[in-house]
Amino acid sequence: SRQLLKSISSSARLFSNHRTQNQTRGYKVAVLGAAGGIGQPCGLLMKMNPLVTELRLYDIAGTPGVAADVSHINTKAQVKGYSQADDGEDGLKNALKDCDLVIIPAGVPRKPGMTRDDLFKINAGIVKGLVEACAENCPKAMLNIISNPVNSTVPIAAETLKQKGVYDKKKLFGVTTLDVVRAKTFYAEKKGLETAKVDVPVIGGHAGVTILPLFSQATPKAALTDDEIDALTKRTQDGGTEVVAAKAGKGSATLSMAYAGALFGDACLRAKNGEAGVVECTYVESDVVPGVEFFATKVSLGREGVEKIHGTGALTAYEQAGLDGMMSELKDSIQKGLDFAKGA
Ligand code: NAI
């Protein structure tokens, strides 16, 4: 677990020394869907983040127990639980009031045989409702959207914030970090590299073929045959489905997702805190690829959120074919989200 903590904090200095702590501001962070499979471990990991002073855990029900439990951990963040069941409408309001960062893993996960898009019917409305509440109670917060289908829920969130007159494209992020985490793990395993030192950018979106790992840009460099690249690409794209199948009806990735969500949340907080050079792959409003309004590439994060969206970098013919091949699905998923939010 020491190793886990070390890697969560790679540059986050999870157990920072006094000097660092004194220099940092503290932030209010809410997790919505905090009693769920992702929400619980994600809350746990955020409790360990030294940049968090207040951790608000919200769900429809069950959060008082989760919050009481997490609150006993001897780190500085103050933990409070809020739920619809216990606090009615005020629960969500109070959980969000003046938050700096809101992490949203609320909604149903996949079962075997389902695509992420099959979740749209239920999760689209959940995300819309939660983002409306964010617009009303913490309009300046950075929003990290984990709820699937991310390719559509981020456009839903953007449109909802626009309707509320508070949209800031620099502060809305689709969390694709798990795809990056998977690509790194699979690449390191395949090539016998030290996992913690590996980097692999992943671009596009967060579903099937829209997930495009760029092994040509992986570091450290290792020779890969075409077959190896194809196998690693497919395994990254199907990583979620691998977990769904293994859990056999009991849900999708929760622990690795909580880790990835905590990593990305930490990156947002470090950037907000003024740390330079924070770069993560994330799905944001972007004009990097003509024809799609939202796209994941490497993004530099700063105090106000997105500071610079990086391009895709040079693509191999295989990667270019992957990019071309995802366009119609990504476009459709974005449009579906926008239409839903517009009530069309
Ligand atoms: P879960 O079912 O274990 O937990 C979801 C939680 O959301 C439940 O506790 C539920 O009560 C809560 N919830 C539902 N509606 C809510 C509302 N209106 N307000 C507050 N809370 C609400 O599901 P799990 O496994 O935690 O997955 C959550 C979501 O994350 C799913 O949509 C899943 O597809 C997505 N996911 C995304 C990944 C990514 O890479 N972005 C990876 C894995 C899962």
Automatic annotation (TrEMBL):
Annotated binding of substrate, by residue: 110, 116, 148, 182
Assembly: Homodimer.
Pfam family, one: Ldh_1_N
EC number(s) per entry: 1.1.1.37
Lactate/malate dehydrogenase N-terminal domain sequence ranges: 28-174
Protein family per UniProt: Belongs to the LDH/MDH superfamily. MDH type 1 family.
Protein name: Malate dehydrogenase
GO cellular component: mitochondrion
Keywords: NAD, Oxidoreductase, Tricarboxylic acid cycle
Organism from which the protein derives: Bathycoccus prasinos
Any one GO molecular function term: L-malate dehydrogenase (NAD+) activity
Catalytic activity from the UniProt record: (S)-malate + NAD(+) = oxaloacetate + NADH + H(+)
Gene3D superfamilies given in the database record: Lactate dehydrogenase/glycoside hydrolase, family 4, C-terminal, NAD(P)-binding Rossmann-like Domain
CDD domains registered for this protein in UniProt: MDH_glyoxysomal_mitochondrial
Binding site for NAD(+): 33-39, 59, 123, 146-148, 257
A Gene Ontology BP annotation from the UniProt entry: tricarboxylic acid cycle
Enzyme class: oxidoreductase
Active-site residues, Swiss-Prot/TrEMBL: 206
Record domain Lactate/malate dehydrogenase C-terminal: where: 176-340
PANTHER family according to UniProt: MALATE AND LACTATE DEHYDROGENASE (PTHR11540), MALATE DEHYDROGENASE (PTHR11540:SF47)
Superkingdom in the source lineage: Eukaryota
